[in-house]
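Please produce the structure of this protein holding iron/sulfur cluster.
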Amino acid sequence: MSSDKSGFEPRIVAFLCNWCSYTGADLAGTARMKYPANVRTIRVMCSGRVDAQFVMKAFAEGADAVLISGCHTPSDCHYQEGNFKALRRYYLLKKMLPQFGIEPERLRLEWISAAEGDKFQEVCTEYTEQIKKLGPSPVKKGVKNG
Amino acid sequence: METIKLKINGFEVEAFDRQPLIEVAEKLGIKIPTLCHNPIIEPYGVCRVCTVEVRHGRRVRMVTACNYPVTNGIEVFTESERVIRNRKMIIEWLLARCGNVPVLNKLAEQYGITEPRFGRGTDDCILCGLCVRVCQDVVKANVLGFFERGPKRYVSTAFDQTSDLCITCGACASVCPTGCITVEGLQEGIYKEMPMGPITPIHIDFMQAVPKKAVIDHDSCINFKTGGCKVCVDVCEAEAIDHSMQETEKEVDVGTILLSTGFKLQDGEALKEYGYGKYPNILTSLDFEVLNNANGPTGGKIFTQEGKVPKAIGIIHCVGSRDKKYHEYCSRVCCMYALKFAHLIKEKIHDCEVYNFYIDMRCFGKGYEEFYNRLLKEGVNFVRGKVAEINDAALDKSEEGKLILRAEDTMIGTVRRIPVDMVVLCLAVEAQEDAKELSHFFSCSVGRDGFFIEKHPKLAPVSTAADGIFIAGMAQGPKDIPDTVAQAGAASSAMLSLIQQKEVEAEVVTAMIDEETCSGCQICVGLCPYTAITYNKDKNKSELNEALCKGCGTCVAACPSGAAQQKNFRDSQIFAEIKGILAV
Amino acid sequence: MAKPKVAFYWCASCGGCEEAVVDLAEDILKVVEAVDIVFWPCALDFKKTDVEAMEDGSIAVTFINGAINSDEQEEMVHLIRKKSGLIVAFGACSHLGGIPGLANLTDKESILRASYLTGPTNVNQEKTIPLAKSPSPDGELHLPELKANALALDQVIDVDYYIPGCSVPKKLILDAVTAILTGNLPPKGSVLAPTRTNCDTCERNKTKPEKLTISKFYRPYEIELDEEKCFLAQGVICMGPVTRGGCDERCIKGNMPCRGCFGPVDNVYDQGAKFISALASLFDAKTDEEVQAIVDTIQDPAGTFYRFSVAKSYLGHKVS
Ligand code: SF4
Ligand code: SF4
Ligand code: SF4
Ligand code: SF4
Ligand code: FES
Ligand code: FES
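Below is the modeled complex.
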């Protein structure tokens, strides 16, 4: 699948909300669907908990991409509207990232429900491929500050 | 009411003063023939076949029993020679107008009339006026009336035109003693037109209904159309019927809720290849259940729409289930009820050929496999293969009017073509249409297939992601009755134990606001979907009510002071996680 | 008792912080009386060799203002660190990288090009660009070399305390000096300013609506600014909620929103990212399009949210 000759294995940090996406990931697990080990998940209760600081921190720590995944809008969020907060932060962040030299594609927002283990698998696989093509993050590991 | 004494055919009997004679006779078990009498309509004695002889002292009179008010001391003879003579005469007169009406002929036979003296007329209305009166006095639709006079007198609608006033209640047809009124549209398609609809506007849904109470179908009840009728009110001794009741909304405070909203059957017309709705005699499993029901429209007799006893019936399993085009899941109930259908058909129509088309037989429950084996012995034909198509393309005369099933029989490796008279489609069970909407309302979720998702398939099978919300039955996924009952039991005991506890476990991962560092900027306040945060003006701090907080952490992410933090999901913990997972 | 020795040093700075010291007016005299100023290149003539000659740790406290963006500054602060007991990062640039840190959002070549070649006020026919080393008849000349990125002081040397602000308000300077002289100091690493953000003391906080939502942003010049209403409620970006208080809301009182010069409070590291989380939450938008439309009304997010703190953000600079 991978056309990458350098053997570059991206590291993708995925923030998953507890109720939909994390459960979806869990379902992918129970259904024995494999997703690339490149995706490293962090569980939060809701995508609304994801602070832009987490994203910047992840990039600073050398993540090649960040995936935020929550329950489908408009109304699947277990807490009613946390996913909207994530949506808003996402767009603003995406506008700012290039100013720091980070390609906006390195940040992705997805809505994955508890039933969509297969979608979780698809997104992870496809995103890993995409980031492989894009190459390593311009942030050198161990950036000074932070 | 004053009671009086009288004698009927020599028997002494008590009655209320002025009670209609026919009622008193009936109490004694004495039958008096009637035509124009109907208990729901004020009698007015027009057909006169109920004529009897009444003696009071020396006075002897011939009266109509249906509307004669009894008085103290009278003596009644219902079968005296004079009465019989009189009645014969009356019947002959009636025959002179309506010579071919079955009820009249039956009466004639009873009274030994073979050659009526005044000949036989060809009309079939005896002009008893029951229909006119039921329409006017009971239904209050005022559609029917008498027209013309003398021998030309007849019953009709105004100007003999189809009337806008008619509500098609059918009351006139049902009271007509001669059966000469038909309501267009009601006669066709015994089960097709109203497969599931109530048989009468007031009815008990089905024998196993819980609670087993009569209900009134608002759409067909005459009272809701004309304000009339209320026959049911008159006959209900418990005085339980009140048409003026209104739908009301009640607010009830509860601590736990069970979502057990059931399922719906897939729409048969969605599967074009099976021609449901296009060809007659293709039934859904529910249609068949109704047809086959002893309380159903045919009294449990299996008829085709044309009223014939079917000679061959095809039962198709897994319609819309286990099919990537519709539903990938197995509906779990079809195999067994399809076997039950086959068994019942065989029981009712011994020589009927029954074909069950299946993909796999899934007889997983207790005693199920045994039942299947029994059916194999009963001569049911099992064809392993999916029916590809149903059409009515007859190859010869014998196949005309039949349904032709084409299916691959994977056991013998050929395509078979089987003509049958009736087909039963075992359609997939589906999630209710509003399940998703409900799930939003109750903060739980539905899966891809639309059924509610349990908190954990093994560890919390009747709980949902929302505390206090439980699920049971088909709403959670296809299952049969024993499984549903088991699940419902589990859910209700889980709910009861929650209620018994009298307290709920608070959310552990709530947010908290550090008073010291909160600047009172109020950014968090409007973000909380549960209004758990309030701004304290005096202190210039935002304060968090932990009992209301559900722990989403939205306010925490937003707090520009880092004053709001979430238990177990503190910023510092998540930063450490980020560092950790990126360390290698 | 000998007066404590005090030093001031300036790095990449606009001069505002020096001005702030001088602005202490008669109060400065009290300070001067109480201490012995041993090094203050901006006001008094000292040489590097004078510092080198001092005993290590002999300066009680050195206040360093300005960001570090040349090798010379780097060398000097290392030297000063050795000679000083306490180092206080003085002002936003030293504390957070400040305005010079904004240069981190571009690269060194572009900065040099803009400063020496393409700047509208430049006349530079020879297209001279300063070189760290250049030959001359008297041998090779050395000039301080511009670093790739401006750094906050603590990214170069160990810092004991911070006094924030662009520039530092008088009260904070006096409080800090008093604390140092009396030895009444908080734990090392503290910012000598309040622990809460500007909204805490801002008069306008009262006018915040119960549920603050924003459907369009305006830059201050685009609307007539209400003098009493909270800026956010007017759709104007105010960094007050994410900026440490202690400035007496001087910008806000001048009817300009807070720009964030005091940096974040202790529980927040990345001021800009934190503000994105706070501000975006308030958008009155539920669909991608609606959100995007509001985002479109925000110009230069990095420059706005990190006006003073690019160097101290998680990334620190534009990466490439
Ligand atoms: S964590 Fe969520 S539920 Fe709790 S107070 Fe904050 S916004 Fe409200
Ligand atoms: S957002 Fe933070 S600082 Fe502002 S009021 Fe809420 S808790 Fe206090
Ligand atoms: S947001 Fe700005 S103007 Fe509004 S209360 Fe806070 S500091 Fe004051
Ligand atoms: S209001 Fe903001 S920008 Fe202005 S001085 Fe205060 S902290 Fe600095
Ligand atoms: S709980 Fe999944 S996005 Fe809010
Ligand atoms: S039944 Fe009494 S008159 Fe017809």
